Amino acid sequence: MLWLTLKVQEISEKRPSEPEIELNETDEAAIVHNTIEGYTTDVTETVAKVRPHIVSVTGLTEDREVISSGVVYAVIGNDTWILSCAESVRDNATYLVRFDNGLSADAQLAGHDPLTDTALFLTHPEFEVRPIDLGTASAVTPGEYVIALGARNLHTQSGQACFGIVSLPGMYHRRSEGNLEWIVETMLTDTAILEETSGGPLINLSGQMIGMLSSSFSANFRGAAMAVSVSEVISAAEQLRRTGTISRGYLGTVTRPVSDLELYQKSAMNISLDVNSGLVITEVAEGSPAQEAGLQPNDVILTADEKELADSATLQRMLYEKNPGDQLVMTIQRQNTVSTVTAELR
After folding, report:
1. Which CB contacts under 8 angstroms, 24+ apart, belong to 158-161?
2. CA gap 141, 28 in Å, rounded
3. How confident is the model at residue 157 (pLDDT cuts 50, 70, 90)?
4. What does the alpha-carbon distance between residue 3 and residue 12 come to, in Å, rounded to a whole number?
């Protein structure tokens, strides 16, 4: 009897006390509460900061009114440039830009690019506006928090704000129109957008625009939204601002920086471990100038026209400076062999 009594006492001494369990539950609840409050404040402040840079663009024809969102892209002297989606463009339309303060101004279509869903408008408001801050698309990572924003509704004076993550940055879509081809850089998010939100900005938590929301690219993704990367949009917008048209050289490759690769990825791609710069080709479009020049997946483009390539946006900007028929001379490394390849762009 004595032995049994001692064992019962020993087990009883090892049982955790009730106050300790209650204390742990209280601490955990407090941590969750503080985290939620922190994110709510950050998103609210960011949306409020960016909202003045967002506009709505209305295209008016004899029988239709098309409304899209947009952003103040640049202010140069008396010229205010508005960036929106090409879906808002209609033949023989007149355009009106309504700013976040509720005031409107007539706008002129400077040019548009259906392949990247980019349109640029010129307007001259009689009040001061400031352009939106632009971020870097190449710095976006999977799982990064983002906010999709649309212009205020004329009747409710409320604008859509949707919070989510980037599901897949660096997505590429091959598009064509007539004889023109292009591979467009986009990013997939789990945010949802309304039709009138197309053309609005996708921003990071710092309030920088990292993409332009596009319902045309989002059409095949249920419950998700696509945004054209800001680097793509800027390249198109700058050419439209300077010339009013788009003329670029199509190469037909999808690339990523070698510096982004882990060692095991280099080994799998047969890339020398001592190669730390340049762009590795992950895809070559069928029938493209790149394929005709003999480029293959896992080739590393070390230079293009004797210029080093820091990231994919660098090559993208070079192609926007080319015209169909121009040549692009590249130094490539395939496994341990370095050679020069010339592609005739189209």
Report:
1. 159/51, 159/54, 160/193, 160/194, 160/197, 160/200, 161/43, 161/47
2. 29
3. confident
4. 15
Token pair 């004595």 is at which residue? 2
Instruction: Look up residue 341 and give its two tokens.
Output: 């390849």
Are 57 and 199 spatial neighbours (Cβ–Cβ below 8 Å)?
yes
Joined tokens for residue 174 = 């091959």
The CATH-assigned architecture of domain 52-123 is Beta Barrel (2.40)
Torsion angles phi and psi, residue 58, rounded to 5: -110, 125
Which one of 3.40.50.410, 3.10.20.740, 3.30.70.20, 2.40.10.10 gives the CATH number of domain 137-243? 2.40.10.10
Residue 16: pLDDT band (50, 70, 90) is very low
How many angstroms separate the CA atoms of 61 and 94, rounded?
A: 7
Q: Domain residue spans in the chain?
A: 52-123, 137-243, 253-344
Q: By C-alpha distance, which of 191, 56, 34 is closest to 121? A: 56
| Cα 44 to the center of its chain, rounded Å | 21
φ, ψ of residue 299 in degrees (nearest 5): -70, 145
State the fold for domain 253-344. Pdz3 Domain (2.30.42)
Residue 80 reports pLDDT greater than 50: yes
